[in-house]
Amino acid sequence: MADEILLERLADYAATQQDTEIDPRRRAMLARVMPAMKERAKTLAELFDMAGFILKDRPIEPDEKAARQLSEEALETLSRLTVRLRHASWNTTDLEAETRAFAEAEGLKLGRVAQPLRAALTGRTVSPPVFDVMATLGREECLARIADAVGRAA
Questions:
Q1: What is the rounded distance in angstroms from the CA atom of residue 58 to the CA atom of residue 78?
Q2: C-beta contacts of 68-74 below 8 A and 24+ residues apart
Q3: pTM over 0.85
Q4: Average of pLDDT values for 74-83?
Q5: CATH number of the 64-153 domain
């Protein structure tokens, strides 16, 4: 199904089944990640659930599985990562390269950085690719969500 049609169906579902209106700014964000989301969701309900990271306002409360990813050690790692991200070029390719370089410099596998990052940004352990999420949300929103996650643990 074409992304534009699916986005319209998602907006209709959100309005009629979830009592949620999707504003133009969030529609644009959803359009950007729709190709990745539609690969992972089988129903409109699943698609709506996956879109929650865009539809919900900060602070994002992690679900139970995501909260387990946000250990004290993981949050310390994310705090160090944000120093590098503040100056990164904000596109999927550069964000991935910067995060990989950070993980390597820290002696970590990418998953030890990317999974807590996904949890902090989306509140979930399943989402569109984390670097697509980052590019979609933008620098300020991502840094704020990471700060929220770190602040929750303080």
A1: 18
A2: 69/115, 69/116, 69/118, 69/119, 69/125, 70/116, 70/119, 70/120, 70/149, 70/152, 70/153, 71/116, 72/153, 74/112, 74/115, 74/116
A3: yes
A4: 97
A5: 1.10.10.350
Domain coordinates in residue numbering, the chain:
3-55, 64-153
Residues near 84 by beta carbon (within 8 Å), at least 6 away in sequence: 98, 101, 102
The C-alpha atoms of residue 29 and residue 31 are separated, in whole angstroms, by 5
Which sign, positive or negative, has the C-alpha torsion 44, 96, 92, 142?
Answer: positive
Q: 118 is written with which tokens?
A: 């996904």
pLDDT value at residue 150: 94
Residue 154's pLDDT is: 63
The whole-number average pLDDT for the span 42-61 is 93
